[in-house]
Specification:
This protein is an alpha+beta fold and 268 residues long. The chain is built from three helices and 19 strands. Strands 2-3-6-9-10-13-14-15-17 form a nine-stranded antiparallel beta sheet. The chain has a seven-stranded mixed beta sheet with strand order 1-4-5-7-8-11-12, with no helix packed on it. Keywords: Membrane, Transmembrane, Transmembrane helix.
Length: 268
């Protein structure tokens, strides 16, 4: 019985083998390409993961939070921070550098390692507290900002006005009394005797607000005419009594003072 297929010539047979080898090599190349894509994808994931880990380890700031209880944080320069409940402290990876800087949201007590060459700055809500080495407490909310100084010396200033700073001495408290237009430095002790002298600064503040703060600070009554309550005043006093401060205000606004008793002053 004869085959239905004719025999191939030598030339035709070589051509068939050549095409077969080309097809085999093409499939092998496709397999290699798929492997390269797969390995390349794995490599990309490894590189990406390494980049994320590197960012977290080398660049991303350290964040410390006191969720339900106070939390003590020891910084690389041996400074100590006790975060009060709900507070958050952000520390850059570059800390400590020439200037030691942290950002505080909420309340905290600081015990700063002393260094004259490397000042320590706490960035708070609209205010900065600059120290060289001391113990102090910051407490703040949406409007109020206060600093109690226990040891050393600090400078407090508004973030947007760094040249207008207020220096605190031990057992003194800085407070804006709920408005950035006001700055008060008074004795940390709340006894009546300690409140006899205070330092106050008002920036474009209404006379009614000034009177309110003077009354709260010195436990006195300052009476002003109704028509003048909206008058704005910018004034500062250092270590002043209630009477001396009211005299300064009266002089600046061209008022006369009528002292009704030891705790009541009337401007007219």
């Amino acid at each position: 019985m004869k085959d239905n297929f004719p025999y191939l010539t030598e030339e035709e047979e070589n051509k068939v083998w050549t095409n077969a080898l080309i097809a085999i090599r093409r499939k092998e190349k496709q397999k290699r390409n798929r492997k390269n894509i797969m390995y390349g994808g794995i490599a990309a994931v490894v590189i990406l993961s390494g980049s994320v880990l590197g960012y977290n380890f080398l660049i991303k700031p350290d964040v410390y939070m006191a969720v339900s209880d106070p939390r003590k944080v020891l910084l690389p320069d041996k400074s100590e921070v006790i975060l009060q409940k709900g507070a958050k402290l952000t520390v850059e990876k570059s800390f400590p550098s020439d200037t030691r800087e942290v950002t505080l949201d909420g309340d905290a007590i600081f015990k700063i390692s002393k260094s004259k060459e490397h000042p320590f700055i706490v960035h708070g809500r609209n205010y900065e507290t600059k120290v060289l080495g001391t113990v102090f407490k910051i407490y703040q909310n949406e409007k109020s900002f206060s600093v109690d100084l226990y040891e050393g010396k600090v400078l407090v200033y508004r973030s947007e006005k760094p040249n207008e700073s207020f220096e605190l001495k031990p057992k003194e408290t800085f407070s804006n009394l709920g408005t950035v237009q006001v700055a008060r430095i008074s004795a940390t002790s709340r006894s009546t005797e300690s409140q006899l002298k205070s330092s106050l600064s008002f920036n474009d503040c209404s006379l009614s607000k000034v009177a309110q703060i003077i009354e709260e600070t010195y436990n006195v009554k300052m009476i002003i005419p109704d028509k003048d309550k909206v008058v704005k005043i910018t004034i500062s006093s250092t270590n002043s009594t209630a009477k001396s401060l009211i005299e300064i205000i009266a002089f600046q606004l061209d008022f006369k003072i009528k002292q009704i008793n030891d705790k009541t002053f009337q401007l007219e």
